[in-house]
Design a protein that fits this description.
By secondary structure, this protein is mainly beta. It contains one helix and twelve strands; from the N terminus they run βαβββββββββββ. Strands 2-1-5-4-3-12 form a six-stranded mixed β-sheet, with no helix packed on it. It has a four-stranded antiparallel β-sheet with strand order 6-11-10-9, with no helix packed on it. It has a two-stranded antiparallel sheet with strand order 7-8. This is TFIIB-type domain-containing protein.
């Protein structure tokens, strides 16, 4: 069973490791499923990625993401995932070709051309649907 906390956007609250995870955001739901870091969750019409897990309290912290299963190629000055629109500022470390999004785990194809990252969707990550 996992308790799910929507993490605060305030960096001082969100990254305060001395604080209990439940104080770093807002409780949104509980599920019988054991959730892990990097899981992509769909609850109602919203998508969330698990960013942090506190094993002792069976609590996970999540961020809400705009996830598109049917997505188009992105061509941007930064690596931008076509599925979750997350920007990977460390993309210069990635090799061209098939790779994955560090935020949602979806498989993408990366090409770097003329100062832009061309990121094509290949296969979306698995989605855990919570009723």
């Amino acid at each position: 069973m996992s308790k799910v906390i929507l993490l605060s956007k305030n960096k001082d609250i969100r990254h305060n490791l001395a604080s209990d995870i439940k104080k770093r955001g807002e409780f949104i739901f509980e599920t019988e499923r054991e959730l892990e870091i990097y899981d992509l969750i769909k609850k109602d019409n919203d998508f969330y990625t698990v960013c942090i897990k506190e094993v002792a309290t069976d609590t996970v912290g999540v961020d809400k993401v705009d996830f598109e299963i049917e997505s188009d190629e992105t061509i941007e000055s930064e690596f931008t995932c076509p599925y979750c629109k997350s920007i990977d500022y460390d993309a210069f470390e990635k090799s061209e070709g098939e790779t994955y999004c560090g935020n949602c785990g979806s498989t993408v194809e990366l090409h770097y051309c003329c100062g832009n990252y061309n990121v094509k969707p290949i296969f979306p990550t698995s989605i855990i649907v919570i009723k």
